[in-house]
Amino acid sequence: MKFAGENSIPAPPQKVWEALNDPEVLRQSIPGCESLEKTGDNEFKATVVTKIGPVKTKFDGEVSLSDLDPPNGYTLSGKGSGGPAGNARGSAKVTLKPNGAGTLLSYDVDAQITGKLAQLGSRLIQSTAKMLAGKFFDKFGEVVAGGAAPAGAAKPAAAAAAPGMTSTQWIYIALAAAAALIAVWALM
C-alpha cells in the first residue's frame, strides 16, 4: 500500500527536526501511544493501542531512521506486531522544507499489512490512517509550537484515551502518516 501527504507545521525546520527526533514529543503526539523510547542513536521502540474498524489491538513495534539529512528529512523504516490482528512493515520518506514562518512536512509511505487488518480492506485502512495522521499532526503542531505540557509532565487525559495509532511514527509518523504506517507507526 502506498500513499503520500503533507502538512504545515507552525515552526521552523530545525525545531520540527528536533521534535521529530524527541521521544517525549512523539509520545505526546501519537494517538494511542502507551510508550515510546529511544533504543539507539537512530532507533525507537513503541507500544501503541489502535482501533481500525472493528479491530482494536496493541502494537509493539520498532522504528529506525536512515538517510539522515538534518534538518531536511530522513527515511523512517519500521515493523510491528499486533498479535492475531496482524503485522505491518513499511517505510516513509519524510521531507522538511521552509514554508513561510513554518515548515512543510511531506511524506511518501510504502507499507504492507497482514492478518485481520489486511482483511478489512484498503479503504477502511486509508480512511483510518488519514484520521490518525490528522490527529498526530494537530497534536504535533501544538506541541512543537509550545502548547503542550513540558517533557516529564503527566499525559493529558485526551491523549491517553485517544484510540488509534501512529505514522513515528508513525510518524511519526509518518509518521504518521497513513494507511500502512498506521500499522507501521502504530507499530512504530
Task: Describe, in plain words, how this protein is organized in 3D.
This protein is α+β, with helices and mostly antiparallel strands. The chain has a single domain, classed as Alpha-D-Glucose-1,6-Bisphosphate, Chain A, domain 4 (2-Layer Sandwich). The protein contains 6 helices and 8 strands; from the N terminus they run E-H-H-E-E-E-E-E-E-H-H-H-E-H. It has a 7-stranded antiparallel sheet with strand order 1-7-6-5-4-3-2. Strand 5 and strand 6 form a beta hairpin. Helix 2 packs across helix 4 and helix 4 packs across helix 6. The C terminus is likely disordered.
Topology summary:
Layout: E1 2-9, H1 13-20, H2 23-29, E2 33-40, E3 43-52, E4 55-69, E5 73-81, E6 87-99, E7 102-114, H3 116-119, H4 122-144, H5 157-161, E8 170-173, H6 179-186
Antiparallel strand pairs: 1-7, 2-3, 3-4, 4-5, 5-6, 6-7
Helix pairs in contact: 2-4, 4-6
Keyword list:
188 residues, alpha+beta, Alpha-D-Glucose-1,6-Bisphosphate, Chain A, domain 4, 6 helices
Number of self-contained structural domains: 1
Helix/strand structural class = alpha+beta
State the end-to-end CA separation. 17 Å
Sheet with the most strands: spatial strand order: 1-7-6-5-4-3-2
Kindly provide the name of the CATH class. Answer: Alpha Beta
Low-confidence stretches: 148-188
Shape annotation? globular
Helix fraction by DSSP (H/I, runs of at least 4): 25-40%
User: In CATH, what is the homologous superfamily?
Assistant: START domain
Order of helices and strands: EHHEEEEEEHHHEH
The strand count comes to: 8
Specify Rg, calculated over alpha carbons.
Answer: 14 Å
Annotation field: number of helices: 6
Look at the structure and give the mean pLDDT: 75
CATH second-level architecture: 2-Layer Sandwich
Beta-strand percent range: 35-45%
CATH topology: Alpha-D-Glucose-1,6-Bisphosphate, Chain A, domain 4
